[in-house]
């Protein structure tokens, strides 16, 4: 197994920056004092983005649930930057042991200082290393020293770490991975997405969801190669970056079918989307077209086509967040709103993708009715519908575009009559 490992370098997003403020990511260079969920720390010049705190919140909640289920928790933070994630896993998730690794050894002092605020080094609950991400994971694998939770917060679409992370994870363990490649998810670099995740991605109106499915699909492929399979527990998109984060559980045994791993097509002509299995290759078409192969159909894949979230797991996360007093503490209930939206998206009747209201309005040549009114009308007609955590002005639904337009026009007529 080790002979087939990819040893291409996995770069940390936490590389030293020039002494200027980066407006696009709110990064401030220098040894800046920060506070997150009551935990004080210093950035030490490492890349730190305050907007990513929600992703860290979700990871800590998941890690804590893992400890409650198993009774112990070993965490590997493969690209730790200044160490705030590692510190939070120690303090809030009560990890028994955390490996805080970052390839840049100039961050060593600040990482140790931040971790020491939670637990003294002499307690032996953490260690700081400065190795390439694949190297540190494979070293622990070789020692048969596996982990319950591995967090790889990488930059871009570097997927070379996936196999190393999978083999270093215990069965039933959690893998929390990242992509920040919005160009590939938008279909602008299909050959790049093919190389990184094994998926040829074309432009689609719900490209940000495609980014999550592309990332999950890449892990599905690597797990299957090793004889395992994975289960997504939640999938989170954040506009800053953009950032695609997914939490996956590693399961024994390979699934001997291609369930939830296939192709997604969207028709430019009618706006509808379709799922295609492997045995439909060469026969893909849209029902709105009379030709056998629709010129208007854009197909991407293979991708993960199954559920993005596990509703029961998200409910447990929300309950824990309430116990910790995280809900309502910022006056916005943003974390509660996010998790509840993810639960709504978990409705098994909902297919992949979402419909943006401006896309529908453009096709219908009308001003779009309010989102809530549209959803209510869809529910009355027996369709499943929910808001999307990915895009505010969009609806996930099993309602076809033509019926969506018809419902919207009815509401417009009612409003003007």
UniProtKB/TrEMBL annotation:
<dbReference type="GO" id="GO:0000049">
    <property type="term" value="F:tRNA binding"/>
</dbReference>
<dbReference type="GO" id="GO:0002940">
    <property type="term" value="P:tRNA N2-guanine methylation"/>
</dbReference>
<dbReference type="GO" id="GO:0005634">
    <property type="term" value="C:nucleus"/>
</dbReference>
<keyword id="KW-0949">S-adenosyl-L-methionine</keyword>
<keyword id="KW-0820">tRNA-binding</keyword>
<keyword id="KW-0489">Methyltransferase</keyword>
<dbReference type="InterPro" id="IPR002905">
    <property type="entry name" value="Trm1"/>
</dbReference>
<keyword id="KW-0819">tRNA processing</keyword>
<protein>
    <submittedName>
        <fullName>N(2),N(2)-dimethylguanosine tRNA methyltransferase</fullName>
        <ecNumber>2.1.1.216</ecNumber>
    </submittedName>
</protein>
<dbReference type="Pfam" id="PF02005">
    <property type="entry name" value="TRM"/>
</dbReference>
<keyword id="KW-0808">Transferase</keyword>
<dbReference type="InterPro" id="IPR029063">
    <property type="entry name" value="SAM-dependent_MTases_sf"/>
</dbReference>
<keyword id="KW-0694">RNA-binding</keyword>
<dbReference type="GO" id="GO:0160104">
    <property type="term" value="F:tRNA (guanine(26)-N2)-dimethyltransferase activity"/>
</dbReference>
<comment type="similarity">
    <text>Belongs to the class I-like SAM-binding methyltransferase superfamily. Trm1 family.</text>
</comment>
<dbReference type="InterPro" id="IPR042296">
    <property type="entry name" value="tRNA_met_Trm1_C"/>
</dbReference>
């Amino acid at each position: 197994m080790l002979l087939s490992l990819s040893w291409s370098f996995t770069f940390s997003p936490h590389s030293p920056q020039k002494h200027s403020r980066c407006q696009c990511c709110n990064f401030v260079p220098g040894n800046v004092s920060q506070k997150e969920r009551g935990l004080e720390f210093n950035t030490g010049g490492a890349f730190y983005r305050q907007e990513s705190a929600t992703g860290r919140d979700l990871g800590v909640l998941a890690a804590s649930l893992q400890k409650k289920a198993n009774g112990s928790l070993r965490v590997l933070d493969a690209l730790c930057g200044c160490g705030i994630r590692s510190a939070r896993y120690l303090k809030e998730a009560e990890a028994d042991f955390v490996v805080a690794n970052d390839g840049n050894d100039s961050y060593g002092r600040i990482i140790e200082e931040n971790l020491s605020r939670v637990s003294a080094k002499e307690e032996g609950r953490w260690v700081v290393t400065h190795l390439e991400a694949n190297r540190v994971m494979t070293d622990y694998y070789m020692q048969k020293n596996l982990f319950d939770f591995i967090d790889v917060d990488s930059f871009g679409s570097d997927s070379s770490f996936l196999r190393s992370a999978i083999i270093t994870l215990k069965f039933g363990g959690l893998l929390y991975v990242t992509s920040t490649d919005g160009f590939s998810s938008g279909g602008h670099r299909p050959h790049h997405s093919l190389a990184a995740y094994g998926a040829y991605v074309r432009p689609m109106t719900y490209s940000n969801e495609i980014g999550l499915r592309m990332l999950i699909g890449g892990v599905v492929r690597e797990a299957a190669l090793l004889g395992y399979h994975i289960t997504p527990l939640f999938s989170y998109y954040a506009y800053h970056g953009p950032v695609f984060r997914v939490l996956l559980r590693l399961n024994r045994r390979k699934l001997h079918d291609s369930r939830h791993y296939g192709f997604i097509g969207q028709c430019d002509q009618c706006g509808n989307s379709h799922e295609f299995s492997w045995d439909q290759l060469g026969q893909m078409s849209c029902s709105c077209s009379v030709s056998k192969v629709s010129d208007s159909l854009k197909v991407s894949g293979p991708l993960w086509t199954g559920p993005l979230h596990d509703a029961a797991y998200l409910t447990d996360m929300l309950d824990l967040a309430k116990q910790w007093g995280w809900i309502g503490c910022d006056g916005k209930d943003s974390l509660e709103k996010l998790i509840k939206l993810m639960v709504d998206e978990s409705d098994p009747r909902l297919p992949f993708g979402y419909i943006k209201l401006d896309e529908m309005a453009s096709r219908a040549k009308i001003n779009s009715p309010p989102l809530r009114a549209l959803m209510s009308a869809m529910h009355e007609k027996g369709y499943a519908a929910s808001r999307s955590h990915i895009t505010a002005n969009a609806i996930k639904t099993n309602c076809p575009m033509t019926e969506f337009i018809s419902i919207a026009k009815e509401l417009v007529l009612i409003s003007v009559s």
